[in-house]
């Protein structure tokens, strides 16, 4: 008791540990993202364009179905559609799909599309060389716009996957600060979430896509 | 840090100051323990009233008494107050009273910080409760405050909620630091780690859990605050964040938190069972190791609360098996308590009754936990009353019974009087019947599919809900009897001996009853 030093060292260690765990909590945010990125869990897909490496051999003997889902988040009133719900591609072949958006409201709005791929195992094999989801869309009242997606399916796609579903959710981000790129905004991190909310995430992974569509309101 | 313990030394051996200032300025571990315990009891009653609002509304199907919005505020506040206001402070109160007595220390290591960590709490909870009167009402997003319910869709009062949780967290962390410093540095000479009483051991481990996870909770609510006010998007998918991340962070805190609420209970039960069995505790060392392994495992099971968010198969399996693994050390403990009782000369005073009630009912809660841990089954059980039944079995006849048992066990030491044994027995049996009437039927309605946190329900659940509501009122009002018994015991009663229980062991029974204001100024020798 006379010697106060043991308390001093114990307490300073514990205070350090506390601060360390506080920081660790924040560190978990990028860690979570890196983890999902590496493993492709949660359907997360890269938010940067795929840089083409040459030498993709197109595999003419294999066909992969790619489905497109277009959802809008709770308070988003834009009309958002893909030109095709589902297409068939050969692995390796560069494909262009066009999406359209209409801003039916009376104000200028900014939107951000957030992609997600199911099954999550296939996420890393969907290579997007160009995507409207890498940017934000700004539309005047009543205006519409065509948006392009350019992608390939990696020929390495495991054999048991014959269908890939690419789901986009469109968010209204007009009220958040005007910023050039989503990746630069504080508190955000590279990579995109699977879907608008956890309920939806679980559903989209659990049940067939057709059902997901119905649950999400369809189009 | 230096001056923190000095005033105590200079006080020497006179008694407490008089009047209210005694309680405001006190740095005495016994005073602070008492404050914590009364505060916790007050919160228990307030949270209990909210539970009775919930049970009244659920007495019959249909909406009778309260609006759904208010119902949600009641479930949220009930959970928050019981977890952070009733159970945790009660254990801290017991730690304050008993740890210095059990390790032969004159006080806690940092008495002034001790005072501060208590006095933060009334302000934190006053702030939390005041949100109920604010525009838009209090928190209504469940005690787990999942984003975006607690961010995008939260009532404006959420900021006050965040600040009050911050204050509770700071209080718990300071309490934990104090406990660790006391235990590590102030044990009487000769008390090696493996001679420490189990309540001390379990609290030491709990304190480390607190240090590890309360800061993570603080981080989560800070992120919420930033999402709400500073335009970040930690949990907002529109800005690149992820609501599922919230759940991971929350449960990384949340699962160890449930063990924070049960490990000290294990300690208390490990004192009471040997005392009233008049035998030594069976398997002391295995108890210590079991506690430590439960604490370690508790960091790798959090996603069993998230089986349905869309985890990959490997995740489902990992969290399923790791969760089931926890049942092993838990089983070791139950086995040890039962072996302690085996062939003992058992007597059934109130503390022992509550301890036995604990063992039986906590085990039921453990079993329902195992059922929930089976991931495919959990898809059915998740967010139903089955989960409500599970966690109430581990928390009410678990944590709360152990606190009550501890209170009866040490009341003679605290007050110098014996409590009224006859009333104590009544209290036990009323609580026992009440608790089971309330929570057992919830297993059935949960399995039948009644969702939790809903003010109305389908007709087929009506009978069991009515039973649960009746049980809830019975249990709630029985606790008023407890209040009466405690007050009666404080005021007077049969004089307690220094060691009122024949089979009791430990340093706390070597000091007089009631325990003098200052004890162990000279450390006792232990051999
Ligand atoms: C054998 C030990 C245990 C196992 C296997 C277990 C397992 C589980 C599982 C799988 C869930 C999630 C259920 C769901 O949401 O679908 C759960 C919920 C819960 N458990 Fe346990 N548990 C155990 C012990 C405990 C203990 C000792 C406590 C506290 C003292 C506790 C408190 C809770 C709470 C509060 C919840 C609900 C949280 C919420 O969603 O509000 N459990 N448990
Ligand atoms: Cu858990």
From TrEMBL, chain A:
The keyword Transcription does not apply. Pfam families: CtaG_Cox11. One of its GO terms (molecular function) is copper ion binding. SUPFAM superfamilies: Ctag/Cox11. It is found in: Cell inner membrane. The chain crosses the membrane at residues 12-32. Gene3D superfamilies: Ctag/Cox11. Keywords: Copper, Membrane, Signal-anchor, Transmembrane, Transmembrane helix. GO terms for cellular component: plasma membrane. It is a single-pass type II membrane protein. Belongs to the COX11/CtaG family. PANTHER family: CYTOCHROME C OXIDASE ASSEMBLY PROTEIN COX11, MITOCHONDRIAL-RELATED, CYTOCHROME C OXIDASE ASSEMBLY PROTEIN COX11-RELATED. NCBIfam families: PRK05089.1. Exerts its effect at some terminal stage of cytochrome c oxidase synthesis, probably by being involved in the insertion of the copper B into subunit I. This is Cytochrome c oxidase assembly protein CtaG.
């Amino acid at each position: 008791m006379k010697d106060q030093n043991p308390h001093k060292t114990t307490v300073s260690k514990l205070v350090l540990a506390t601060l360390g765990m506080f920081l660790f909590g924040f560190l978990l945010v990028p860690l979570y993202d890196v983890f999902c990125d590496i493993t492709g869990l949660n359907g997360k897909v890269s938010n940067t364009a795929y840089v083409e490496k040459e030498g993709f051999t197109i595999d003419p003997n294999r066909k992969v179905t790619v489905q497109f889902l277009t959802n809008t988040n709770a308070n988003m009133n834009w009309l958002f559609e893909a030109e095709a719900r589902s297409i068939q591609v050969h692995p390796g072949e560069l494909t262009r799909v066009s999406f359209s958006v209409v801003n039916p409201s009376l104000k200028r709005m900014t939107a951000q599309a957030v992609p997600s791929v199911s099954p999550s195992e296939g996420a890393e094999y969907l290579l997007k060389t160009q995507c409207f989801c890498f940017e934000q869309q700004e539309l005047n009242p009543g205006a519409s716009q065509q948006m392009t997606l350019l992608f390939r399916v990696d020929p390495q796609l495991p054999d048991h996957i014959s269908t890939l579903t690419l789901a986009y959710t469109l968010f209204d981000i007009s009220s958040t600060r005007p910023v050039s790129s989503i990746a630069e905004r504080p508190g955000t991190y590279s990579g995109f979430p699977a879907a608008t909310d956890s309920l939806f995430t679980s559903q989209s992974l659990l049940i067939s896509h057709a059902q997901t569509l119905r649950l999400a309101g369809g189009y | 840090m230096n001056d923190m313990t000095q005033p105590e030394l200079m006080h020497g051996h006179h008694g407490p100051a008089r009047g209210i200032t005694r309680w405001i300025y006190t740095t005495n571990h016994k005073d602070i323990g008492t404050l914590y315990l009364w505060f916790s009891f007050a919160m228990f009653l307030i949270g209990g009233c909210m539970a009775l609002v919930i049970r009244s509304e659920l007495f019959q199907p249909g909406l009778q008494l309260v609006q759904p919005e208010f119902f949600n505020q009641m479930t949220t506040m009930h959970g928050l107050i019981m977890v952070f206001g009733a159970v945790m402070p009660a254990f801290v109160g017991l730690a304050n009273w008993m740890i210095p007595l059990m390790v032969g220390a004159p006080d806690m290591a940092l008495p002034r910080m001790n005072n501060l960590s208590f006095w933060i709490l009334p302000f934190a909870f006053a702030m939390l409760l005041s949100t109920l009167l604010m525009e838009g009402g209090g928190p209504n997003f469940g005690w787990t405050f999942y984003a975006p319910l607690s961010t995008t869709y939260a009532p404006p009062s959420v900021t006050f909620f965040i600040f009050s949780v911050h204050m509770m967290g700071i209080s718990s962390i300071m309490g934990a630091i104090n406990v660790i410093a006391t235990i590590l540095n102030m044990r009487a000479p000769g008390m090696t780690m493996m001679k420490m009483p189990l309540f001390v051991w379990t609290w030491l481990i709990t304190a480390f859990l607190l240090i590890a996870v309360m800061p993570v909770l603080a981080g989560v609510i800070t992120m919420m605050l930033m999402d709400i006010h500073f335009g970040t998007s930690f949990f907002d998918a529109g800005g690149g964040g992820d609501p599922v991340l919230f759940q991971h962070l929350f449960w990384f805190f949340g699962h160890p938190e449930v063990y924070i609420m049960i490990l000290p209970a294990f300690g208390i039960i490990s004192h009471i069972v040997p005392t009233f069995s008049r035998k030594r505790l069976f398997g002391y060392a295995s108890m210590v190791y079991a506690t430590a392994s439960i604490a370690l495992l508790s960091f790798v099971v959090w996603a069993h609360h998230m089986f349905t968010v869309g985890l990959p198969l490997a995740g489902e399996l990992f969290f399923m098996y790791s969760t089931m693994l926890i049942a092993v050390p838990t089983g070791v403990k139950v086995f040890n308590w039962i072996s302690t009782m085996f062939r003992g000369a058992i007597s059934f005073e109130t503390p022992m009754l509550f301890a036995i009630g604990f063992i039986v009912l906590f085990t039921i809660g453990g079993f329902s936990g195992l059922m929930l841990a089976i991931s495919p089954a959990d898809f059915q059980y998740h967010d139903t009353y089955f989960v409500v039944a599970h966690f109430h079995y581990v928390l009410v006849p678990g944590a709360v019974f152990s606190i009550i048992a501890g209170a009866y066990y040490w009341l003679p030491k605290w007050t110098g009087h014996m409590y009224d044994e006859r009333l104590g027995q009544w209290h036990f049996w009323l609580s026992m019947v009440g608790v089971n009437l309330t929570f057992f039927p919830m297993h059935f309605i949960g399995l039948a599919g009644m969702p939790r946190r809903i003010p109305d329900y389908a007709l087929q659940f009506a009978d069991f809900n009515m039973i649960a509501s009746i049980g809830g009122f019975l249990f709630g009002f029985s606790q008023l009897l407890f209040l009466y018994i405690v007050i009666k015991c404080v005021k007077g009663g049969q004089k307690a001996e220094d060691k009122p229980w024949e089979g009791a062991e430990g340093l706390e029974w070597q000091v007089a009853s009631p325990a003098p204001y200052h004890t162990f100024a000279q450390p006792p020798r232990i051999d």
